[in-house]
Every structure is written in structure tokens, then in C-alpha cells.
Design a protein that fits this description.
The protein is built from 21 helices and 22 strands. The chain has a nine-stranded mixed β-sheet. Strands 11, 12, 13, 18 and 19 form a five-stranded parallel β-sheet that branches. The protein has a four-stranded mixed β-sheet with strand order 14-15-17-16, with helices on one face. The C terminus is likely disordered. The protein is globular and about 75 Å long. By secondary structure, the chain is α/β, with parallel strands linked by helices. Helix 8 crosses helix 19. It has a domain of 132 residues. A hairpin with a 4-residue loop joins strand 7 and strand 8.
Length: 558
């Protein structure tokens, strides 16, 4: 269905079937510069093949700094980061200028100036002035946080963070809280990522899927995001901060047990005594144990302390049969995380301006940092919501969980038994569990199960049989083939806005596509009740508008 001149991160991530054929692509677009990548949708009989081209971030020539500016940009309805080549540079790269290439969609800089464009020719070929793989990587790694900052500013930010953490154990708790609340005002003014929801990366996925469906003139098959026909995932995790939390675990575990939920419990190995009996009883109950650092003193992941402490963390992991890591205070470092040697890490939030290390990977889906699976925390933390921001109830949790459900993502909750004597947290957690207890569309999973699924999915491919598509690999039994763009095809082709809106909302939902494809997947998907696309479209935006205006921006009680 598709051929690319080199591996395409977007297709690899969504497991869209394609072949890499460097030489043939080079021939078909003679004239395109050597660092231009090409993805071609194979032609149907009687039609010309159409291509998507982009400038590879990896193969960027030494002169690139003169033609592409690393920065923050707006396109369509989303923000993105990357090197973007201005129109003059793109003109020189366009293959076959006689094809009447034109700037079709404008790209704006942060100040609103139009600085570049998506180019299209009269045959429907498209040229992107940026590399989609680089865009995805800058979100996932939070690399965008250093764009536009001077090296000195980045260094000072890192130093201030270290200072706060090293001083913190010495501060009485009320002082710590007051400091955190003061920080809150500063952090809330940060323009990106948005809070409590940042949709840019998922809107970017939708935009790209829409473009590729248009190129292929039909729905684009991809390997469904969740197993067994489920359309979203709900994952419960807890960090046990201190001996108080260790004592109070039942405050959160009891309501889970009543609702039939399982959860993951992250322990700090050397901060309090974790006895084997507690570990065994949680595991017998279907729960998982993870590692939450060694001492939780702000030093677990820094310099020489990491080398000293990592063997002890591994020893705890082995004793607890733990494969997952949650960094204390979610301190994280993209280069460091995969060195920790765990199967998965869950220290990145999708968006969290309130943590001492603010930021977010901007996704509701797992992703890879080299060989390690990252499972983002996608609801605001209990401590942030109830203690720092003083919310009275869990309304924001529920609204955001519904939003992620509607986008087919993973709701990963982090709560602490240490704070569970706060009635707002206890009641809010109960409400969250109750709300989704009977939802037949959700996959209730432990983080280790999500990591295993994501790994198996990444090792699986979709193969055309001439009759439809089947899945090869570890996801063959539980996975299903989904289609992006199928929803839009029913709409008028002449309405790109309608197409885009339908696309961005629909693409993540499992769809059984045309004809018999579902039967050909080899999967036996559980029937799921889907609301109509119309109701999703109607519901989504008002929800976000409502929760984007938290009532707690006014000065907080000290
Ligand atoms: Zn912690």
C-alpha cells in the first residue's frame, strides 16, 4: 500500500504497513534533494501514485541551520516543535517544479507571523517543511522545553530544581506546601503544554492521518492501540511515599477490591520497611509492585548517587518481582531513564506544570525511550489537585478521563495512600472507580501488562492478503486492525475542514472497516458499544472548555 525511501517513525509507531525501498523512491523523485524522504501511496489502477515528502532531520545537511529554524510553531489547530524550512528553502527542494507546487496550509511562528507552509502540487503530492519523526520525538522526550531557551537559562533552571530538592527534606511540611503553592502561580503562566489537557500531539497525529488517507484515497490500516477490542485503557498506580502511606494502603486498596480493580504499588526501598508478606498479599490479590527510588530524597537519580543506589534498587526489584520504575517526585532525564534497566518507566506526565520539574510528553499513549516503554501519567496527581490546587471534588479527573477515553488513550492515575485520609481524595477516587467500573469499552490493566502489550504490538506487523489485512507477530491473537480515515470517507470530499474534524476525533477508535476485514484479523474482538461520532464531536470541545478554566486560579489559601 505504501513505500518509503527510509523508515518512517509515524508509520512504525502506529504499525501502518509499508515497505522501505530506498533506490526506487530515489528514481521516482529525481530532483528531490538527497535529504528529502518520500512516502508513496501505491497507485490504484488508472490513477497516478501520490507522495508525501519531508525533510529528514537525521540527514539534514550542514547548511541546514541557514534554512531551517528549530522553534515552536502553529499549524492547523495544534502547536508543534521542530526544524521548519521557510518557503524559499523548500522551493529549491521541490521535485519537478513544473507540477505547479503551491503553499497550501500556512505555518505560523509563536508571534503569529506566517513563516512556512505545507506545499501541494496539482496531482495531490504534498511536501512538509519539517520531519514528523523529529516533531514526535521532541514531544515525547520533552526536548521542546529547551527550545528557545539559552543554555544559561536551561542550566539555571536545572540548578534551581536541584536546589529545591536538596533543601526540601530539611523544610517543615507546611513550608514545603507554601512553597509549592507559590510555585503554582509561576508555573500556571507557562504557555505550553496546556493544562489540564494538551492535545497538540494527538491533533498532529490526526492531521497526519487525514493527509495520508487522502494520499491513499482511502482508509489507512493500522494496528489497534489496545487488545481484545477495547478502545481505551485505565491503569491505577500508587506511590507509597512514607511509612504513613505504607500503613494506610488499605484506604485506597479497599474500594478497588470492591470494584474488582487491580493496581500497581510503587515502594521506596530504603525509606521504610517493606515486608514480604505485604508484597505477597498484594500480588495474590492481582496487584503489581514497582520501584519508587531508594530513598526519595531528591538524589536517587542524580550523578554519583544513581550509580551507588541503582544496584540496591535492582535488588528490591528482584525481591518484589518488579519490572517498573516511577521516579521520586517524577524527576526525569530522557538520556538517563532507559539506563535504569527496567521494563517500563512511568515518570513522565502528559502535562504537569505543577511538578517541581514541570513539563510533559503531551501524549495519552505509551511510547518508547530506546528499549524502555514509557507509560505517561495522564491524570493530575491527587496531591496537585486536592492539596496544591484545593479542588473540592474529582470533577476534573472525570472530565479528563472521559476526554482521554474519547480519544482512545490511556488514563493512568497516580494516587498516594499517604494523602488518602483527605476526604476529597478518598471520595474522588471512589467516584473515579465507580464511574468506569461497568464500562465495557475499557481495558483495565496493570502497567506491566500495558508495557508487555505495547512491546508485543511494536513487534507485530499488518500484512495484506489480497483479501484484507492480517496481523503477524505477538499481537496476532489479541490485536485488531483499525482504520484511520474511514469516518471521513462518508463526508463530502470537498470539505477539508469537515474531513479534518472527523479525522482527528475518529482515528483512534477501533473500526471494523469495510467488509470482512475484522474477521480476517484473526482477533475476536469483544463487542464494544460506541457512541456515534456525532455525539463525540458535540461532547468533546465543551468538555475541554469547561475544564480548561479551573476555578482555582484565584489566590490560594495559605
Ligand atoms: Zn513519591
Amino acid at each position: 500500500m505504501f513505500e518509503a525511501s527510509q523508515p518512517f517513525v509515524f508509520f512504525d509507531y502506529f504499525r501502518i504497513p509499508y515497505a522501505v525501498r530506498p533506490s526506487r523512491q530515489g528514481d521516482s523523485h529525481a530532483g528531490a534533494a538527497a535529504f528529502v524522504c518520500t512516502l508513496t501511496a501505491l497507485a490504484r489502477p488508472g490513477q497516478a501514485a501520490r507522495s508525501l515528502m519531508w525533510v529528514s532531520a537525521d540527514a539534514r545537511p550542514a547548511t541546514w541551520s541557514a534554512t531551517g529554524q528549530l522553534g515552536c510553531y502553529r499549524l492547523d489547530n495544534f502547536t508543534f516543535f521542530g526544524h521548519v524550512a521557510p518557503d524559499a528553502a523548500i522551493r529549491a527542494m521541490l521535485p519537478r517544479p513544473e507540477r505547479d507546487w503551491r503553499p497550501a496550509e500556512s505555518i505560523q511562528a509563536e508571534d503569529g507571523r506566517q513563516v512556512a507552509a505545507i506545499w501541494r502540487d496539482r496531482d495531490g503530492n504534498v511536501f512538509l517543511p519539517f520531519d514528523p519523526g523529529e516533531v514526535m520525538g521532541l514531544f515525547w522526550s520533552e526536548g521542546y522545553r529547551d527550545i528557545g531557551r539559552s543554555a544559561v537559562a536551561a542550566f539555571c533552571r536545572a540548578a534551581a530544581l536541584r536546589g529545591y530538592y536538596l533543601a526540601r527534606p530539611a523544610l517543615p511540611r507546611p513550608v514545603q506546601l507554601r512553597l509549592r503553592r507559590l510555585f503554582t502561580h509561576v508555573q500556571a503562566t507557562s504557555a505550553f503544554p496546556g493544562w489540564p489537557v494538551e492535545d497538540s500531539l494527538h491533533d498532529f497525529y490526526g492531521w497526519l492521518f487525514a493527509m495520508i488517507a487522502e494520499l491513499a484515497d482511502g482508509p489507512v490500516p493500522f494496528l489497534g492501540l489496545w487488545p481484545a477490542g477495547r478502545s481505551w485503557a485505565l491503569v491505577l498506580t500508587h506511590d507509597v511515599e512514607t511509612a504513613v502511606g505504607y500503613r494506610d494502603m488499605s484506604l485506597l486498596r479497599a474500594p478497588e477490591r470492591v470494584g474488582g480493580y487491580r493496581s500497581s504499588w510503587n515502594f521506596v526501598g530504603a525509606r521504610y520497611q517493606v515486608d514480604g508478606e505485604t508484597v505477597r498479599s498484594l500480588q495474590d490479590d492481582g496487584c503489581e509492585i514497582g520501584v519508587h527510588g531508594l530513598l526519595h530524597d531528591g538524589r536517587d537519580l542524580t550523578g554519583r548517587f544513581l550509580d551507588e543506589r541503582l544496584p540496591a534498587m535492582w535488588e528490591h526489584a528482584s525481591r518484589w518481582n518488579a519490572v517498573g520504575f516511577r521516579s521520586p517526585a517524577t524527576l526525569r532525564d530522557w538520556v538517563l531513564m532507559h539506563r535504569l534497566g527496567f521494563v517500563y518507566d512511568s515518570s513522565y506526565a502528559d502535562t504537569d506544570p505543577y511538578e517541581p520539574q514541570p513539563g510533559g510528553c503531551c501524549t495519552f499513549l505509551p511510547y518508547f525511550n530506546r528499549g524502555m516503554v514509557e507509560l505517561p501519567i495522564t491524570l493530575p496527581q491527587d496531591h496537585t489537585l486536592f492539596t496544591i490546587l484545593q479542588h473540592a471534588d474529582a470533577e476534573l479527573w472525570l472530565r479528563k478521563a472521559e476526554h482521554i477515553r474519547d480519544r482512545g488513550g490511556m488514563v493512568l492515575v497516580l494516587t498516594h495512600p499517604d494523602y488518602a485520609r483527605d476526604k476529597r481524595l478518598a471520595d474522588g477516587y471512589q467516584k473515579l472507580l465507580d464511574t468506569f467500573a461497568d464500562d465495557r469499552t475499557v481495558w483495565h490493566a496493570l502497567p506491566r501488562e500495558v508495557a508487555a502489550w505495547w512491546r508485543g504490538r511494536a513487534a507485530s506487523t499488518i500484512r495484506g492478503t489480497g483479501d484484507g489485512w492480517i496481523i503477524d507477530g505477538p499481537a496476532a491473537d489479541a490485536g485488531q486492525v483499525c482504520y484511520a480515515g474511514a469516518g471521513s470517507m462518508a463526508g463530502p470530499r470537498s470539505s477539508p475542514i469537515g474531513l479534518r474534524r472527523a479525522q482527528t476525533t475518529l482515528w483512534l477508535m477501533p473500526r471494523n472497516g469495510p467488509g470482512r476485514t475484522a474477521a480476517l484479523t484473526g482477533a475476536r474482538p469483544t463487542p464494544v458499544t460506541r457512541r456515534s461520532s456525532k455525539s463525540r464531536l458535540r461532547v468533546r470541545n465543551p468538555v475541554i472548555e469547561r475544564i480548561a478554566k479551573p476555578r482555582t486560579w484565584s489566590p490560594l489559601p495559605m
